[in-house]
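Continuing the series of single-chain predictions for the mutant panel. This is the parent chain; the variants come on the following pages.
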Amino acid sequence: MKMAPADRKERKSKPDLVTRDYTIHLSKMVHKTTFKKRAPRAIKAVKKFAQKAMGTKDVRIDTKLNQHIWATGVRKTPTRVRVRLSSKRNEDEEADEKLYTLAQLVEVSTFKGLQTENVEA
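Parent structure:
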């Protein structure tokens, strides 16, 4: 059995700088979590979601998103949150990755019928 040469495999690269809006169901992520760990777990869940969706390890949470998650205290995090994930170039020269993801809050009146949307920056 012969293996294909390594140079034949070409990976499709994701578009470099993209911005998308997502709805994250936080109550699923913090279900059955101790009260005192709920808000920190929600922040970690947003970071994990952004890593998976955008393909970057470096995820930065905007202060407004952080305040929104922590607004009602450590125990009662919001059920859902609408997040704008934007991949940006890293200005730091000695950074491990050339891109990072910025997670920002998008305020909406209702979550009904919302889907993932590409945002033109």
